[in-house]
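User: My collaborator sent over this chain with a note saying "see what the structure looks like." That's all I know about it. Can you take a look?
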Amino acid sequence: MSIKQITSLTNQTIKDIRALHMRKEREATKTFLSEGLKIVVDALEQGFVPRILIYGKDADRHPLLERAIADTLKADGQVLEVTREILEKISRKDNPQMVLAVFDQVIYRLGDIDPQTNPVWVALEQVRDPGNLGTIIRTADAAGIGGVILIGDCVDPFSVETVRATMGSVFALPIVKCTREEFLSDRARWTGSVVGTLLTATHSHRSAPYQRPTLIVMGTEQSGLTPEIAATCDTNVKIPMRGKADSLNLSVATGIMIYAACGD
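Assistant: Without extra context I'll predict from the sequence alone. Here is the result:
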């Protein structure tokens, strides 16, 4: 295959790429859109090759872009050279990234992962904010934990906003989806500590028995863990609030819990 030049906004491939801003289209095609050369390079480092690579015709042909082009073509992916106007339409920005890419989604089920392969994992119940989820995935990657488990009706981990917030970490560790019922049924496999966070808990997060493998369980931004999930945890803890604020941003709280479980 060779590089294809596209200048028309009515091109069907361009329309299909733009449609990936919609969750139903991402779920139908099992693909997602990412922005920026850094994320593309991070994906390549993790063994993920774009299905479609898009770059602006005025883009600096950086050696990393040349590598991305070569790797995409070698894997029989499409490489599109497009106008700035098309980049703006795809990204929905007046100042778009000069490199975009479409990747295949990789979603794990609970049965696909082995809790014993990493000392710490994190589960999120009904997380709704894409920025929070993306930041948590990035933090989980930075801490070197096993993966992120999404319980119930969560925000799409492959939305453009979530992927942007991961800064490339979306490719670095397993993202698992499950229902609440599946999570409860799988509970017996977590033989270390399952530690939930509740505002009504009496124990500090520092005093939790973080036995390996530890599963940290975090609730929604608004209402926390549901009673069913809280009840299945070995221990529920809270992060002390010493100032006038009565709560923490979910991604900040999850980061604190992850590093506490890691012993850092």
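A starting point for your reply to your collaborator: The longest helix spans residues 130-143.
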